[in-house]
Amino acid sequence: MKRNDIDLEMVDKTEKERVREKLLSVPGAPSPLEFNSTEYYRVPFVEALRLVSSRECYLERGFAYVPLAKIISIVEAKFRSALSKSLVLAGNNSNNAAVDEHTRIGPLLKSMNSQYTGPSHVANIENGEALTAANVDASVRSMPLCMSQLHAGLKRDHKLKHQGRLQFGLFLKGAGMSMEEHTMFFQREFTKIMTGEQFNKQYSYSIRHMHGKEGKRASYTPYNCMKIVMGSPPGGGEHHGCPYKHYDEENLSALLGKLHVGSVAEREAILKLKRDGNAQLACAKHFEVVHPGASGVESVSLDGVGNHPNAWFTASRKYYEAKEGSGKSVKMEMEVVKQEG
User: Fold this and answer.
1) For the chain, how big is the Rg over CA atoms in Å?
2) 179-190 and 162-174 helices, crossing angle to 10°
3) 158: region left, alpha or beta (phi > 0 left; psi from -120 to 50 alpha)
4) CA angle at residue 129 from 127 to 135, to 5 degrees?
């Protein structure tokens, strides 16, 4: 691993003994007889999200304790990151004469860095409340920063430019908003600066097209993080893109402070990931900060958080449903006790 610049912190014997019982209680842990000979590594929580979501590691103070046998998932994540960077470089160099001569290879190479092979994260509204024009504003707390910024831009300017409409519109569709509700929500905002006739003429078709009701009638899926990160940065009056990729550090820091995201130290941890060029890890860290204890909530799946905006949204809604549902249950139990007394 060192030969390939994969530097992982091994847990020493003293530390391993201190958390022995915790490590042995993890599903799939080695037997007590094998424990002493098993090597464990201590890695940041955000680098072991797959293991965390499936409860295959012990968590303590933002770090995951991972046995050597399961370290492959960490190595895989690092490999994907390195591969992504290499594809970006390859894409940037694809304009040279040698590649341009191969018209079949050039376009493929240019697009490889934005390909996504994970799940589409389209919501199943049968398993939760559908997203509508009436409740979308109240759902902003569960949106990742890229989408909450698009929402804020829409509410402030009462319009979104083309790239913003695509990014936000497909996100809403993936989150379970129907074509009718999508149209109603956008129309409600846009008609604050234009007539209903202008809205229908200029924007209704594109919404129907997005939902597969016009043109070639293809049902488009929401953008994943890689597509957003590798896409064009926002220009004047635009709100699309990834804040962790496209915002400068000063503006991002001010935004996180304005939104009261975590403590000063936690915001600095997010900004450090941004400085290091890890936009998606910064996003995952943001989720961790504003959803404390999410890894311990049974109904919350962290799979895809930091890789897909809709995975963030789904996990966040499940988190709040569990937390607020638990609070209601406690309140009801207190009322029963009070009445019995």
Assistant:
1) 23
2) 140
3) left
4) 160
* pLDDT level of residue 116 (50, 70, 90 thresholds): low
Higher pLDDT, 167 or 58: 167
- Return the structure tokens found at 56: 């295959």
Task: Indicate the SS3 state at residue 44.
Answer: strand
Alpha helices in the chain (DSSP H): 13-18, 20-24, 32-35, 49-53, 72-92, 97-100, 105-112, 145-157, 162-174, 179-190, 196-202, 204-210, 225-229, 243-246, 249-258, 264-275, 279-290, 309-340
Place of tokens 């979104």: 160
The pTM assigned to this predicted structure is: 0.64
List the Cα angle 105/108/111 in 5-degree steps: 145
pLDDT at position 53 is: 79
Tokens of 16: 């391993």
**What are φ and ψ of residue 173, in 5° steps?**
-60, -45
